[in-house]
Amino acid sequence: MDATPQSVAVPARSLEPLPPDGSGWKMLFYKEVLRFWRVAFQTVAAPVLTAVLYLLIFGNVLSRQTMPGYGGISYIAFLVPGLVMMSVLQNAFANSASSLVQSKIMGSLVFLQLTPLSHWNWYVAYVGASIIRGLLVGLGVYAVTLLYVPPHAFAPLWIAAFAVLGAAMMGALGMLAGLWADKFDQMAMFQNFIIMPMTFLAGVFYSVHNLPGIWRQVSHLNPFFYMIDGFRYGFFGVSDGSPWLSLGVAGAAFVGVTGLVLHLLKTGYKLRQ
Predict the structure, then answer these.
(1) Distance CA 265, CA 191 (A)
(2) Which positions ≥6 away from 36 have C-beta within 8 Å?
(3) Taking Cα atoms as reference points, which of 261, 112, 110, 252 lies closest to residue 178?
(4) Which of 77, 133, 213, 226 would staple 246 via disulfide (CB 3.0–4.6 Å)?
(5) pTM, two decimal places
(6) CB-CB neighbours of 23 under 10 Å
(7) Do 147 and 138 form a contact (C-beta atoms < 8 A)?
(8) Sign (positive/negative) of CA torsion 84, 88, 94, 95?
(9) pLDDT one-digit tens code per residue, 124-170
(10) Dmax over Cα atoms in the chain, in whole Å?
């Protein structure tokens, strides 16, 4: 005689409530930080190595040069803040841009849209993770350069302010590129034709006062110049322009990019397809 199957009582599991709106960004922020940290050799160590190669090549070739108008400091010392800030800007941009494009390609972005996260939550999480990655790479570059150049820190608060502000603006700009691009080729075009030229015209490897007239004017229209120039002021107490002007221009650029990104996130630009 077959045994009659009997139902087994399963204890009810209490469902954990979703985090209230306004705190869920912490989970997304943690996910974004973990995303780049799991491949830290590629996302942190490799950019540090690239910046150090720039330092070794340019520093050895022009090691005997001094920078007029900067108190007679060596060229290699002048180069260090530019390389650190360049690394911060490029990696902060790459973090948010690559994350959004990768989520689009893999189709995982739709699951994020099902969560009760607001556009502010998205913005804070992605930009916050970009700031962390940018600052980690910048600190790594600076730590290695201490092997070649004695440390300089005329105004540490200016250094911190421009580093965080620059990383935040580039993280927001990376979100803008990630929202616009549908594949990595489009993101690479944004980086190669906009980010790289603006970075190299910002005075990373030279003082803009040494440029011909037209290029000097172009450089003064570049917000990257003000971020790098203000950052360099924090090291030496001397810069190509006023640090307050640099702070104002960089802050205005950050507010402008942030407003545009928040508007695109709120309207679901290229997200609700």
Answers:
(1) 21
(2) 43, 44, 95, 129, 133
(3) 261
(4) 226
(5) 0.88
(6) 10
(7) no
(8) positive
(9) 999 999 999 999 999 999 999 998 888 888 999 999 999 999 999 99
(10) 101
